[in-house]
Design brief:
heterodimer; A: alpha+beta; globular; B: alpha+beta; two-stranded antiparallel ribbon; two-stranded parallel ribbon; 1 helix; 4 strands
């Protein structure tokens, strides 16, 4: 008993400790390794370490013909493979000045937007899971995504890596009766989105966990080149589909949802709103689908003149995906630089988690919705 | 070697491509990380793959490749190193 009474709080050690989160950790969405410096439970500093999933995609691209790199783009952001395919194909088409027929553009838009819905559903479901809403929202979202994946399975035979887009078109036309299937899906998904509002968006626990956590200001977002839903949640009305329309996005009516505070809840809300807008685009594209054959005659070898270069950006679910292709006149690109959205978005993480509790840092991580496959490339 | 920057202005909606030529015997450029924080990781990536040094960079370390490497894999003269050298023969016969 003597020992207990002589024990004082001043004797407790007060130095900052360093803990490792990852590379294997359920909240880091892949193999991300975060080094946290903690004062008690408060994060003093955070240092991300990358490279566990590095597969040298850019070096591989230099040793392959233009057409042979399409399957590799599937593996960048594996939740939005179609969007990656699209970005790469558009970049090559820009490099070699290849026109694309209108039907192929419509089919590409429908498919890319469907995949955006799928990707955002995973983002929402995993975010709720990270906040401790164990399994239920995740199962709801994955069940809805399953419908998208099943459609893609019917379309191209793949469930995760599709390899569907081709330079100059797509690999095959939409199967017969697909417009009815997609219309039914839109109706189903809209009903479900209302359910999410009741289940998650205005849920008291969810609000108290995610409101005012990890606030990203407008200035900081622009300074860090943050793009996609994270930028829009900070109040910057910026969407490449709207501001610099590529393909046929200028033909459709849709809004760009914008957040107010740039906190974790806003990031979630912007993603949810974007699903509504994507469904609107799909509906309009299905209605205006022109006649024709989207399947292009594909050459094995494409060549661009020496010194030609093209930088093309597309709006991916995670942000702005850019491909920078440089040609030396050969059948392979001289350089293929991939500007992946998650890579630039993750760079802002240390700023966001500084001063938060470690449990709130997990909330910020979930709300960023990144994919390690595209960060490490 | 050539360093290419793609700069974009949100306000004026203008994209600017800036190319800087650096001699092979002195691969160093001034860092932009003080101006735009996003240049921090992108310059680290360039350093990692090409060995171009960015002067006055806050934290110039390798980002994707192992820290102890002295290869620059995206250079054209890079050849695949012998990662796992064959074990030397122990002299046993059998």
């Amino acid at each position: 008993m003597e020992q207990l009474t002589s024990w004082k709080t001043e004797d407790l050690s007060k130095e900052e400790i360093i803990i490792n989160m990852g590379p294997q950790h359920p909240s880091t969405h892949g193999v991300l390794y975060l080094e946290f410096k903690l004062n008690g439970e408060m994060v003093v500093d955070c240092r991300p370490h990358l490279g566990y999933l590095h597969r040298s995609c850019e070096k591989i691209a230099e040793n392959r013909m233009y057409t042979a790199f399409i399957p590799f783009t599937d593996r960048l952001d594996y939740l939005a493979s179609m969007n990656n395919n699209l970005g790469y194909c558009l970049a090559v088409e820009k490099l070699i000045n290849l026109p694309v027929n209108p039907k192929a553009q419509y089919v590409r838009t429908i498919i890319a937007e469907l995949n955006r819905v799928g990707s955002h559903l995973v983002g929402i479901g995993c975010f709720a899971q990270d906040l401790g809403a164990y399994a239920t929202p995740m199962f709801y979202c994955f069940n809805d995504r399953e419908q998208v994946v099943a459609m893609f399975d019917e379309l191209c035979g793949g469930r995760l890596t599709y390899n569907y887009m081709r330079i100059g078109g797509v690999s095959n036309d939409l199967p017969p009766g697909s417009d009815k299937i997609i219309k039914d899906y839109i109706k189903y998904q809209r009903k479900k989105l209302n359910d999410y509002n009741e289940l998650l968006t205005y849920n008291a626990i969810f609000l108290s966990r995610s409101k005012k956590i990890g606030i990203l200001t407008k200035e900081m977002a622009i300074n860090y080149s943050v793009t996609g839903p994270i930028l829009r949640s900070s109040g910057v009305k910026w969407d490449l589909r709207k501001d610099e329309p590529y393909m046929i996005y200028d033909k459709f009516e849709f809004d760009v949802p914008v957040g107010q505070n740039g906190d974790s809840w806003d990031r979630f809300k912007v993603r949810l709103e974007e699903i509504w807008q994507s469904l609107r685009i799909i509906e309009q594209a299905i209605g205006g689908l022109p006649e024709g054959n989207p399947v292009a005659k594909i050459n094995r070898v494409y060549k661009a003149p020496a010194g030609a270069e093209a930088y093309l950006r597309t709006e991916n679910p995670k942000g702005e995906l850019g491909f920078y292709l440089v040609s030396d006149g050969g059948e392979k690109p001289y350089r293929n630089k991939i500007r992946s959205p998650s890579f630039c978005n993750l760079a802002v993480l240390p700023e966001l988690v500084r001063g938060l509790n470690i449990s709130d840092a997990v909330c910020v991580l979930g709300s960023m919705d990144f994919v390690m496959g595209e960060i490490d490339r | 070697m050539e360093v290419v920057y793609h700069l974009y202005s949100f306000k004026n909606k203008i994209m600017l491509t800036l190319k800087v030529f650096v001699p092979l015997n002195d691969l160093a450029v001034e860092s932009l990380a003080g101006l735009w924080r996003s240049a921090d990781w992108l310059e680290r990536e360039t350093y990692d793959f090409f060995g171009i040094k960015f002067l006055n960079h806050p934290d110039l370390r390798r980002i994707l490749n192992p820290e102890e490497w002295d290869y620059y894999p995206l250079r054209k003269n890079f050849t695949h190193p012998e990662f796992f050298p064959k074990p030397e023969s122990t002299g046993l016969k059998g």
